């Protein structure tokens, strides 16, 4: 760890060594000492210099060279620390002044290397400091630009790669899932409108619970009603017998009524089933009055208020709107039937008056 | 129940269902007109229930999956060998459900497996649907059930009073 702690010394030494050549501010005494030490050091260890200052690899600026250079550099710095304790002391004293000089001097390098990671910054500053004053600034700048370009290219390439990696797996499933979720939520909204009490509930699971309960209740109601219908034995028998008798009539009536007016022909196909429905109510009892009672039961079953004859007349007037209300049309049918039973000959005239 | 705007249009679902249901009711009650024993009543109840389902499904037509499934069910119920048919059907249904469960597993996770499977059991033919289709069919089924209940209640109330 001593090597790493002293790693900045050569760098500082170098920067101080460069100062007199650039004619900068720091005091000449310490610089002379340092330069003297540096020269001595260079003379004592000449074999280290080709390693330490390789001019060609630096210009090329390949990362492998950088690493090698760094390794030699570290070793060298440790050697420096081991060799000269007093030199280290001097550099420590001068560290404050020299650091400013280094900053000034390395501006060109730093401008380039601002966008790069701090590790590479350190490396480059070391490289820059390791270049002696004998070497001009221009190759360094060129080198830095080259490095910058390569670094930027690497960065961009990395970004592009990451974007591509993100985009490729995300898109197809995203669209599929998105469409599916939209569909499901649409259907849930439709169901929400259909099921009463489902508006208050939030959350799909709770809504589905509500829907399930509602469907179950409806199915139970169907079962209950079919039970009820199954228990009415004799009435149904009568009804079944009477329905055959009644089913013949609407055809005859439609034949009668379809002749006078073209507007009747629009409504004539509707009549058979309407009559069938009305006749089922009429079939429960033998007389027409009881059929009216059955129709009233129909109306009340639909929770409509019982309507008297004046209201019936109004409904007859509204009939052209297209059988808007169930009970209204049913009552209209019953009224028709009543009139038919009273005076069968005038029925077609009445129909014409309705239209 | 809220009053619904339904016409007496013979092509409407309500009138078609009413027509078919009344016809089948008449048929049922023609077979054994006077029987008051509880067993007879129960048998008649089953028949009425089947008739209601069948007439609803036939009124809807074969455009919907649930109505098709219901018609198929009603057909198989009326046959003399219900056990054999049912077994075959169960096998088919099982195979289908196995196939579809794999497909619809993701959707069920979103909503909740219990709810989805609960709704599957209720909607006829729901075992072989994915969630999207199931919800669509359920919406239509609820509409039709509402109509059925309305009509049946009308008929029942008509004859009790």
Describe the structure.
With 355 residues, chain A is an all-alpha fold. Chain A has 18 helices and no strands. Residues 1-143, 157-161 and 236-355 of chain A have low confidence and may be disordered. By secondary structure, chain B is an all-alpha fold. In chain B, helix 1 runs antiparallel to helix 2, helix 1 (13-31) crosses helix 7 (131-160) and helix 5 packs across helix 6. Chain B is globular. Chains A and B meet through helix 10, helix 11, helix 12, helix 14 and helix 15 of A and helix 1, helix 2, helix 5, helix 6 and helix 7 of B. Chain A: Residues 92-102 have a biased composition (Polar residues). Chain A: It comes from Turnera subulata. Chain A: It is found in: Nucleus. Chain A: This is BHLH domain-containing protein.
How are the SSEs placed, and which strands pair?
The complex is a heterodimer of chains A (355) and B (161).
Chain A: H1 2-5, H2 8-22, H3 28-44, H4 48-52, H5 55-60, H6 63-83, H7 85-105, H8 107-113, H9 118-130, H10 137-194, H11 204-231, H12 233-258, H13 262-267, H14 271-282, H15 288-301, H16 309-318, H17 326-342, H18 347-354
Helix pairs in contact in A: 2-3, 2-7, 2-9, 7-8, 8-10, 12-14, 14-15, 14-17, 15-17
Chain B: H1 13-31, H2 38-60, H3 65-77, H4 82-103, H5 105-111, H6 113-122, H7 131-160
């Amino acid at each position: 760890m001593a090597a790493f702690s002293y790693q900045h010394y050569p760098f500082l030494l170098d920067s101080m060594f460069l100062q007199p050549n650039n004619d900068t501010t720091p005091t000449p005494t310490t610089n002379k000492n340092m330069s003297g030490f540096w020269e001595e050091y260079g003379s004592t260890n000449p074999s280290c210099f080709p390693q330490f200052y390789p001019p060609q690899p630096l210009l090329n600026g390949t990362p492998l060279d950088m690493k090698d250079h760094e390794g030699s550099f570290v070793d060298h710095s440790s050697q420096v620390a081991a060799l000269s304790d007093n030199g280290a002391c001097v550099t420590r004293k001068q560290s404050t002044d020299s650091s400013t000089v280094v900053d000034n001097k390395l501006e060109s390098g730093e401008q380039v290397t601002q966008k790069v990671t701090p590790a590479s910054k350190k490396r480059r500053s070391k490289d820059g400091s390791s270049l002696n004053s004998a070497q001009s600034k221009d190759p360094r700048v060129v080198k830095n630009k080259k490095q910058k370009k390569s670094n930027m290219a690497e960065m961009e390439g990395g970004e592009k790669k990451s974007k591509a990696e993100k985009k490729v797996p995300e898109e197809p499933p995203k669209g599929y899932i998105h469409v599916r979720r939209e569909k499901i939520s649409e259907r849930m909204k439709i169901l929400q409108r259909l099921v009463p009490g489902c508006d208050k509930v939030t959350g799909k699971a709770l809504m589905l619970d509500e829907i399930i309960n509602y469907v179950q209740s409806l199915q139970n109601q169907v079962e209950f009603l079919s039970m009820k219908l199954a228990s009415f034995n004799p009435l149904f028998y009568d009804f079944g017998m009477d329905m055959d008798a009644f089913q013949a009539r609407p055809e005859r009536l439609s034949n009668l009524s379809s002749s006078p007016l073209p507007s009747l022909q629009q409504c004539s196909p509707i009549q058979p089933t309407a009559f069938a429905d009305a006749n089922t109510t009429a079939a429960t009892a033998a007389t027409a009055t009881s059929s009216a009672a059955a129709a009233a039961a129909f109306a009340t079953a639909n929770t409509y208020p019982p309507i008297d004859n004046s209201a019936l007349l109004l409904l007859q007037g509204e009939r052209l709107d297209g059988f808007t209300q169930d009970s209204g049309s049913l009552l209209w049918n019953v009224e028709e039937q009543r009139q038919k039973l009273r005076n069968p000959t005038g029925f077609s005239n009445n129909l014409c008056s309705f239209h | 129940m809220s009053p619904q705007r339904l016409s007496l249009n013979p092509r409407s679902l309500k009138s078609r269902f009413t027509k078919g249901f009344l016809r089948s009711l008449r048929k049922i009650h023609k077979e054994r007109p006077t029987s008051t024993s509880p067993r007879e009543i129960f048998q008649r109840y089953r028949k009425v229930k089947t008739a209601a389902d069948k007439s609803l499904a036939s009124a809807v037509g074969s455009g919907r999956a649930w109505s098709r499934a219901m018609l198929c069910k009603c057909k198989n119920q009326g046959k003399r060998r219900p056990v054999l048919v049912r077994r075959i059907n169960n096998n088919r249904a099982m195979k289908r459900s196995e196939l579809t469960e794999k497909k619809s597993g993701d959707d069920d996770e979103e909503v909740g497996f219990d709810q989805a499977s609960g709704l599957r059991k209720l909607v006829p033919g729901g075992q072989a649907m994915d969630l999207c289709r199931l919800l669509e069919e359920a919406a239509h089924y609820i509409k039709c059930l509402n109509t059925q209940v309305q009509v049946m209640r009308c008929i029942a109330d008509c004859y009790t009073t």
